[in-house]
Amino acid sequence: MFQGASAINLDAKGRMTVPAKHRDVLLAQCEGQITLTRHPHGCLLLFPRPVWETHRAQIAAWPMSARAWQRIFLGNACDVELDSAGRILIAPELRDAVGLQRDVMLLGMGTHFEIWDAQKLAEDEAAALAQGMPDTLANFSF
Prior knowledge:
The protein has 142 residues and is α+β, with helices and mostly antiparallel strands. It has helices at 20-30, 49-60, 67-73, 92-98, 118-131, and strands at 2-9, 15-17, 33-39, 43-48, 78-81, 87-89, 103-110, 113-117. It has a single domain, classed as 3-Layer(aba) Sandwich (Chemotaxis protein chec), CATH 3.40.1550. 36% of the residues lie in helices and 31% in strands. A six-stranded antiparallel sheet has the order 1-7-8-4-3-5. A two-stranded antiparallel ribbon has the order 2-6.
């Protein structure tokens, strides 16, 4: 299970260094083979390839009425591999689609990660907090 937040800087070529704590797991779990795709909330999703393959099959089976959503998830999917320095190259098209600049946040979300522009994530989290907890979480407590 991936969890936690990591502040990361993209280099001039659009490469992101995966933190060592996650890199080791990704190398063991999928030999560093990763798939990136776009999420409609304005971030990228990073999946270990075997996890993505399960999702890809589910998405491909969606009905024709969901074709636009298939384009978002499948049409933007990009297979990448960790290089010898533990970095992945994020394609310019994906960076542009979600506004990734230099400062990004990598969020562990269980079976996958989200990659956010740091400023956009801060704004989205502030907006969520301002709206208050949704009704579905009314009975949630630690």
